[in-house]
Structure to design on (770 residues):
């Protein structure tokens, strides 16, 4: 079997660096063909020197010369800027894109890869939240698989292997509940960034860790799942499972439930998506059922964690509403991370933006882009950014 | 799609009657083509009048005339006696055998069906415990599937759909622990039949309910799993899970675990085995994760429930040792059900028989039959039956 050439869009983030660990551990299976970073030139250079990719892109154009200089003695091509991300995504030099750019910025390169007919390992849930209908329709047309990297969606994807997609009764997304499980608004109002960044189970990037603390992450995952698995909103259930051992479940129409489980470790779903349909032997730590232990389940508290209720509402309404939700949320989370607004203010920003931006039932891609821009501007104006 | 003609060997038992409920609920998918019973002529007649099978067999020859007379106005052929079970199993008038005869008696008809090239829905674990190597080799030669009906093995089978069989790291069989979970020998010594017949989660026949109370059932299931899924004894782990919601699990060699779950209801695995590779929509009650609930896990207490340790030892030794274990256990359980011996005496009977009957490393089918007879005789002599 020849090596699979991976283009990692977002190679210096949490998913990207773990994907490179997987590639380093399986040099007979994978090469890193494209690496891209937004601002972290130092790590991008280090990665390029180790993995010797065909091409690297640094998003921040001011850092082009630094990267170019550092790699001048290598064969690696260096590009810079947002436009270059798209152009490189359109180059037919890789076999699979790992779409690991955080947020809305991951959308356009992913669309390029799909147009090119490349399988997608999708770690960027915003791509589907914003424009899931267009993405999945294009992927269907091009007959390319979109393999989720999110642990929950990877779990569902794994549970569906060998099963009929039309036999899904519902999916059950598990949520850890985040660091503030069981807390009430009078506690949350005072939560600061450092506290919210301490996730009990998963080691992830800053944006997704805040989204986990507000439960917005689970709401985005519901929308992502709707598109990935072609479900109605009634077929998607969220259950709080604080131990994060069951990563998610599928209930089939005969009542049988399949779950995928394991210790929380993002390397497993990353590796699974990259190697699918194979599994790769590894020595990651195993979950030990012999130790006395319990797995617990409860309903999410959507009265306290209102972001989840807003996401459910956006999913129910459809159209450009999830795009509005996502754009406002990105602005709100970054404002919170900069200590500009409080924890509960994030919900206010999202809710007000959802009320303000005009609803479009069946947006075009251009209308999604416009909606995104309008929602960001309005959300930023609320914060006086 | 034409209907699948099912031959139910053991139609009046717990599995058989539930299989007929599945057939009655799905008349477009299944017909009951053969029904057999050991002694329950009244129920066999009733079933034959309802399902209009091609053939029925009553094991107890004294009841032949009763059954023949009752069905004389129908097209159904009536046979009697143990030999007739085998002969009917060899008739090419059905598409799948549901092997639901309890105990060793199910072995020979199952072998006939395999020789005939008929897929097996296997509810009779003793068939594999006694002669799993021969059964599975023949099934492999004939390229017919052996689809388990036991909830645990059905769970594993379902988890393996679409996965590589060579990617199994281990399987984790869950055990409810039975009605005496947490009890110690000083309690068990006084246990009576009526108490042991009250299983906390599952509604099953008497033999298997006692085997569940002693944990011998889990031991037999380990051996069954070894053959069904071509595993080494080191790859099979038992975990006590008192809620019986997770029916069993597979851990793959990338560390990912798949579990199959649901409310304990034997109709689901029966239906799954009969309909495989399809799933049949039904309205069986669903497990509700929204209610606060916990699933717990602990190691089995094999010092107290020594039957499980004996079964593990028989599996480890291989050869005719599982056959010896099974034969002695059948004698011991029926003696206990007749109040001839105590609860802990069952273990003594099995252990002594395992020590006494000569070990054969690679038995022929004839040697299995001989071993079975010798072990039964010896076990019976211990009980003075």
């Amino acid at each position: 079997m020849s090596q699979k050439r991976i283009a990692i869009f977002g190679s210096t983030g949490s998913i990207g660096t773990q994907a490179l660990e997987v590639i380093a551990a399986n040099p007979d299976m994978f090469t890193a063909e494209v690496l891209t970073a937004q601002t972290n030139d130092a790590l991008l250079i280090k990665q390029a020197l180790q993995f010797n990719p065909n091409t690297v892109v640094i998003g921040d154009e001011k850092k082009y010369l630094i990267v170019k200089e550092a790699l001048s003695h290598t064969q690696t091509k260096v590009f810079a800027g947002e436009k270059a991300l798209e152009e490189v995504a359109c180059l037919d030099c890789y076999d699979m894109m790992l779409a690991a750019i955080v947020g809305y910025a991951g959308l356009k390169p992913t669309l390029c890869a799909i147009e090119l007919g490349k399988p997608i390992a999708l770690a960027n849930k915003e791509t589907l939240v914003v424009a899931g209908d267009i993405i999945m329709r294009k992927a269907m047309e091009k007959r390319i698989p979109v393999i989720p990297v999110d642990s929950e969606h990877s779990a569902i994807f794994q549970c569906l292997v060998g099963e009929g997609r039309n036999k899904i009764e519902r999916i059950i997304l598990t949520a850890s509940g985040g660091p503030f499980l069981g807390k009430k608004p009078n506690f949350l109002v005072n939560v600061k960034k450092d506290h919210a960044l301490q996730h009990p189970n998963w080691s992830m990037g800053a944006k997704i860790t805040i989204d986990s603390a507000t439960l917005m992450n689970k709401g985005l995952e519901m929308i992502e799942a709707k598109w990935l698995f072609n479900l109605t909103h009634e077929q998607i259930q969220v259950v709080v499972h604080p131990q994060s051992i069951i990563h998610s479940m599928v209930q089939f129409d005969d009542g049988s439930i399949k779950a995928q489980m394991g210790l929380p470790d993002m390397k497993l779903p990353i590796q699974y998506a990259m190697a699918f349909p194979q599994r790769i032997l590894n020595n990651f730590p195993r979950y030990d059922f012999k130790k006395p232990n319990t797995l617990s389940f409860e309903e999410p508290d959507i009265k306290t964690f209102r972001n989840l209720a807003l996401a459910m509402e956006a999913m129910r309404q459809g159209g450009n509403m999830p795009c509005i939700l996502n754009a406002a949320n990105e602005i709100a989370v970054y404002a919170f991370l900069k200590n500009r607004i409080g924890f509960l203010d994030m919900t206010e920003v999202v809710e007000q933006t959802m009320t303000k931006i005009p609803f479009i039932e069946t947006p075009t891609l251009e209308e999604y882009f416009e909606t995104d821009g309008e929602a960001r501007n309005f959300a930023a104006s609320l914060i006086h950014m």
About this structure: The first helix of chain B runs from residue 14 to 25.
